[in-house]
Amino acid sequence: MVTKIIKDNVFAVGAVDWNERRFHGYSYVTKRGVTYNSYLIVDDQTTLLDTVRVGFEKEWIENITNISELSKIKNIIINHIEPDHSGGFPEIVKLCPNAVFYGTEKAKAGLFKYYGVLPKNWISVKFGQNLNIGKRTLEFIDVPMIHWPDSMFTYCAYDKILFSNDGFGQHYATNKTFDDEVCFGDLMDEVQKYYANILWPFSSIIKAKLEAIIKLKLPIEIIAPSHGLVWKKYVNEVIEKYLYWSNSSCQNKIAIVYETMWNSTEKMARKILEGIISENLEAKLFDVTKNDRTDIAAYMLDAKGWVFGSSTHDSEMLSVIAGFLYFLKDSKAKGRKAFAFGSYGWSGEAIKNIENILSKTAEFLPSLKFVYNPSEAELQECFNAGKNFAKKLKE
Fold first, then answer.
1. How far, CA to CA in Å, does 395 sit from each of 13, 256, 279, 390?
2. What are the Cα distances from residue 107, in Å, to 35, 45, 122, 223?
3. Catalytic residue list
């Protein structure tokens, strides 16, 4: 591997997982692969930040030893204990027995629960504590629930680098290093997917913590996350995006998400789409059984309008959309308008079930449900419903 230089004597030493296509179990599709970023700072006290996923320890250790002997590593910082970042923890404890480890108290407890080992030298840190390593002083910023209770950032004033772990990350496997070395549009798509599928439920916490960090007036020229590319050119842009999303800001666009049994509900969905488009509003149609949940969530993150459809089966909505709606419920989104629709045979409970699941997440307008195959007159009602919904969003 070619050494990735982030700044003078600051190196990226992590690993690239080119072929990973599933993340967080099977809940997140990673079409562009994944990186597990770890950073090495060479100073009077050589310092390592974070590890890699299990299975990538050999590559990671080789990257480190291309720059420094392991015996020279004096400090090891664990910003977050999730296994994609801490998988190499047992190995580095063994290889660097005299190093001092730093992390939150919750990180210490969590690492022992995961791996059954702890280093002989561990220091639990809190917000604002510092570690001097020579020319540089590292400042610890605990960020609980961004996105686990143990999470923290590390800031280096000397280099103006924020080591942000899962914050500002993207799943983007590449041999490039910085944000301006790939297509900006593709990069921001991955940032939005990451936020929508990992961080969305913690938006209120992210908003408060970002505002607190901004008040510190830390000069930040580089953000070095633990997934994806390092931010250098577009630092302000990605921070502004996080503030936008965490504030539940939306665009006047509409996601129509549905599951159909015999295509009757799909016919309704397409007519609703036509009605929305007639009002010159952006909208997208998603059959939840044929589209990746990762992409649907990313689109819905800043969509002000949500429309959900399902056939009724055994007094319930269909199973795939049910799972998606429970995921969406956990997003704790605010400020959305929605309505539900669907076909049914004899009772039509799916509509009410959709509304019940998301009653605290969106404001629901009157629903639509028709028996069996919708007639031409009923399809016209669907068109009108889409048109009126679009008008409501523009008010």
1. 51, 20, 12, 9
2. 22, 22, 11, 22
3. 24, 80, 82, 84, 147, 166, 194, 227
pLDDT tens by residue, 155-195: 999 999 999 999 999 999 999 999 999 999 999 999 999 99
Sketch out the chain's domains with CATH numbers.
4-246 (3.60.15.10), 254-394 (3.40.50.360)
Q: Which two tokens stand for residue 178?
A: 């910085």
Q: How far apart are CA 23 and CA 93, in angstroms?
A: 26
- Pick from 162, 179, 173, 167: nearest CA to 230: 179
Q: What is the pLDDT of residue 345?
A: 94
- The token pair at 198 is 């990992």
List C-alpha distances in Å: 276 to 187, 363, 395.
Answer: 29, 18, 14
Task: Write out the chain in H/E/C secondary structure.
Answer: CCCEEEECCEEECCEEECCCCEECCCCEECCCCEEECCEEECCCCEEEECCCCCCCHHHHHHHHHCCCCHHHEEEEECCCCCHHHHCCHHHHHHHCCCCEEEECHHHHHHHHHHHCCCCCCEEECCCCCEEECCCCEEEEEECCCCCCCCCEEEEECCCCEEEEECCCCCCCCCCCCEHHHCCHHHHHHHHHHHHHHHHHHHHHHHHHHHHHHHHCCCCCCEEEECCCCEECCCHHHHHHHHHHHHCCCCEEEEEEEEECCCCHHHHHHHHHHHHHHCCCCEEEEEECCCCCHHHHHHHHCCEEEEEEEECEECCEECHHHHHHHHHHHCCCCCCEEEEEEEEECCCCCHHHHHHHHCCCCEEECCCEEEECCCCHHHHHHHHHHHHHHHHHHHC
What is the rounded CA–CA span in Å between residue 82 and residue 225? Answer: 14
Determine the length of the chain. Answer: 395
Mean pLDDT of 385-389: 98
Strands 46-49 and 362-364: unpaired
To the question of pTM greater than 0.90 for the whole model, the response is yes
